[in-house]
Amino acid sequence: MITPSVSDPSPRRRSEKSRSATLSAALELCAENGYGKVTIEAIAARAGVSKKTIYRWWSTKGAILLDAVTELVASGSPLPDTGDIEADLRTHIGSLVRLFTSPVIGPAYTGILAELLHDERLARAVNDELVIPRVALVYQRMRGAQEQGQLPPDADLPLAVEMMYGPLYYRHALGRSYPDEQRIETLVAHVMRALRTPAPS
């Protein structure tokens, strides 16, 4: 039996290196040429991997770019728990805006949103891998704030999450500029005010 060494990496390490190279290559090509001009062939050539290797993990370029965007959003949009729900939501929404307006993620995310309109499989993946986990994260943080008495016990938290994210998706889908720091503060303040206002009977 041959013991793997630094110079003879295990299959798992080789696979992870190829996967990481593929995701990086896809994002780079999308930023350079636009989503529509990205091809599996170009990604394979840039990443230094075979097309067979790529198709072992992904069926389309949209799936590759979704994986890349999902990883960066998960790591780059923290939702802290400082004890101040309003401040924590401002931090979270602000980090999302910076990600979606970055030259690395922005073009890929725009292309994915356009593609999912006529790719049902990609649409499901976007929902399952990107949207639902982020919504759940914000919901759980708001639920914690509710339990701490920062939000009313009857506050409609699922609706509040939609109110928080809705303007971001709306602006991105229509190609409008994202809110600046002051507008983000206003957005969060309005959502918090709506949560704390008793619903009409």
From TrEMBL:
This protein's UniProt keywords: DNA-binding, Transcription, Transcription regulation
Keyword DNA-binding attributed: yes
Gene3D superfamilies reported for this sequence: Homeodomain-like (1.10.10.60), Tetracycline Repressor, domain 2 (1.10.357.10)
InterPro entries tied to this protein: Homeodomain-like_sf (IPR009057), HTH-type_TetR-like_transc_reg (IPR050109), HTH_TetR (IPR001647), Tet_transcr_reg_TetR-rel_C_sf (IPR036271), TetR_C (IPR011075)
Pfam families given in the database record: TetR_C_11 (PF16859), TetR_N (PF00440)
Domain HTH tetR-type: 16-76
Entry protein name: TetR family transcriptional regulator
